[in-house]
Amino acid sequence: MPAFNFVRKSYYRDSVTLMRLSRDMEAVAGVSAAAAMMGTPHNRALLEQAGLLARDGAAAEPADLIIAVVADSAAAADAARSAAEHALVASKPPAPTATSAAPRTLGSALKLLPDANVALISVPGAYAGAEALKALRAGLHVMLFSDNVPIETEIECKRVALERGLLMMGPDCGTAILDGVPLGFANAMPRGRIGLAAASGTGLQEVTCTLARAGEGVSQAIGVGGRDLSDEIGGVMMLRALELLAADADTRVVCVVGKPAGARVAPRLAEALAKVSKPCVVWLPAAPGPSTIRGHNVHVAATLEDAGRAAVALARGTTPTATEYAESAADIERVGGDAARRLAPGQRYVRGLYAGGTLAYEAAGLLAQSLGEVALTGDGAGHRVVDLGADVFTLGRPHPMIDGGVRREWIDKEGRDAGTAVLLLDVVLGYGAHPDPAGEVLPAVRAVRERRPMAVVGSVCGTDADPQSRAAQVERLRGAGVVVMESNAQAARLAAAIARRAR
Amino acid sequence: MPLLGGPPRVVNIGVDLFATTLAARDVPAVHVDWRPPAGGDPRLAAVLARLDRRREAIDRANATALERLTNGAPFLVDCRPAREALDLPDRTVLHSGPPIAWERISEPVRGAILGAIRYEGWAANDDAARELVERGDVRLDPCHHHAAAGPMAGVLTPSMPVFVVENRAYGTRGHATINEGLGKVLRYGANDDSVLARLNWIATEAGPLLGAGLRALGGIDLRALMAQALRMGDEMHQRNLAATALFTRALMPGIAQVGGRHHAVARLAEFLAGNDQFFLNIAMAAGKSMVEPVGGVAGSTLVTVMARNGTDFGIRVSGTGPRWFTAPVNMPQGLYFPGFTAADANPDMGDSAIVETIGLGALAMVAAPAVARFLGAGGTAEAAAMTLEMREICVGEHPHFRIPSLDERGGPVGVDARLVAETSITPIINTGIASRRAGVGQIGAGVVRAPLGCFTAALEALAD
Question: Comparing C-alpha atoms, which of A11, A135, A22 is closest to residue A68?
Fold first, then answer.
């Protein structure tokens, strides 16, 4: 089928808005693939790889919008274009009033809100650094949601921020809660006495949701960005966040949620933690070699759930304990046994399909402890866990936390694989996430299970106060036969237990 | 102690969903309607990033430049021949816009230059006049190099009387010719006998009378007059009806004192009464006197001159002093007199964009709903949108030029070349439209956008 391109000159829209258009366009009969992207060289290359680029799109400029459609006829392509344009008009920003219009620059926004203190930046990565530096130089703390920011830019932003006593959260910082205000993707969270510093967005969400469900709250949750703990960045913002949390009167317990720390950063992190005169909890993904993080005030947690529970215990003056399952051993035995018995011979593998990157990473680590080798790519032969939020899976399409389309395709794909025994899923709630993420994946889960027996295990990262309500989402999933566990770690353990029993 | 040092107040740049979420929780948040800076041009974005490292110094320089611009106190003090007022040498013809060679000058500007040479008596006909220019016996030079601003073709020769405006805050001066009225006029490239006859009358009767009257008055406070006209529906580029009436009211007592010859006074009064745009040239002279002190503030990215010669659009920026940065001028968009269409139009021309440079004209469009139709069908809403759009590229708001429909806030003033490049919003200029053929004159009116290229060129020079 041929590709059709429609170009609108000088028509910028952010990628989240544009990615929603793909879904509207792909719903049109006769359309097999569609994307709407700004005409940057990078995007044009992506469209070309996907077979979506035609002549008009190839000639587009970075400020032009390309609507690209692969369709069986020009009429179908044109119908997809109208669907996209209809959606674009529907999402237009509010019309300016007589004396104010939407500002076009940070400087203009600061005239409207002169005492602003935070810039929340989510523009494409190539532009994000310049915007962040502008905001820092104007004296604002920055949360930089964008990814694909060059590491040199991150180094410069963080240097400027530290010089000026400001926070530089990110790049690639998905969530933060500052003085009770959630920024980016965050869950509805009571204020409380546990302060967090995190290099991981969904990792932070899993920990905060765990402690909120246990009745505790968050004083501050400071994101630092996924690369902060690398040796290139040197953990500078994590160290700064620890200083702030150590000095913060509302914070009684400090919790660090990490990414694998660089060889030079790990000892500095350990040293900084030892200096915090408050109980600390640390979760870092399994890194090769013995952990250097230890200290009398530091509790190292094995899972995100345990990190949340340990923070709760320390806040309450009790001793942290590890949790394996919320349910009794007998219940787990029964559920696991029932699931395994229904599997056909040859159904042996766990297939994790994740919206949250750190949740995927945690699951892969736990599966590997029990099952041996687990691939973190979509093409391993055995057990595998795929982070569907990674760029390679979201070319011109919405992140799985916003839209279930990509994940439905992967559920269908893994469901057709003869080797799949267990589908392992996460469902992430909160501000910014899809209003019904469980409902987004269930049609695909039902279709798979109508074809043949298969275990589906998952967990819901969220709170009952979230716009989607965790209780309601759990109910929906269970109603469709999904085994919903208390946490991602527990879901991964159960998935591994079922796979071990498979023949 | 809050982590942020105060209640969170957020500027959201990018995904609007995040701002919506904050607003739903009553967190003060402003959403930026962000676009890729510099239209996505990576080279220009790099220039902006380089300048951004000196942001604080540039912002300080711009504050200084803006203060000089908005503190200007223009007084109309005299009207005298350019030979005296400007020390303009013989055989010199001034024109609008940046410098340009004869070969590249458009037809209506050529028509005006040749007409002016005949008017001065340096040649008897157009062919002889052209020869003088081509041989270099008549020198061409921009008005802006001589403390003057010329409307449309902007042609100014030694015997033409010019208004003299003194900026009493800084001791600078600005000059402009006397407006000839509408129809067949030299500034639109018309040059027949009727045009030259009117120029003769202006030089021999109207000019001396105006000069004597102004001297008798001791000067007219133009800042107060313009601020008042702005409140009466003029933006002082497309519409000068109120300003002309206010000027006439202020002038006439002086004319009455000095006007011995009854018929001369009557002819001047009639000329003023029939010329709604008379004040435009005075506003331009005022503008020139106001921008003169703004040039040369080290590091400043404030635009001090925007001018067109029918071929090129040129700007000057405070931090680079007298240096011109040019790009091909755009075609105006607007409404045409009966019998003319866009196909008849010449590319835009004139120094009248000095009016926008000081914060009037298209920048104050919201104050002039009566001429908003030149912008298109929408009228007042589009006029308001234009002023708000211009606010995005201006450093400040004018402390004296306040606009009732902006809740008494000052109109936007002080175009910042950085903001132009960053937003790709180029200044809008109200303008008249000349025929592209010499000798025809004005065929319409409308608006024109400054081309981005001259702003980016200036920034590259400033970044080096």
Answer: A22
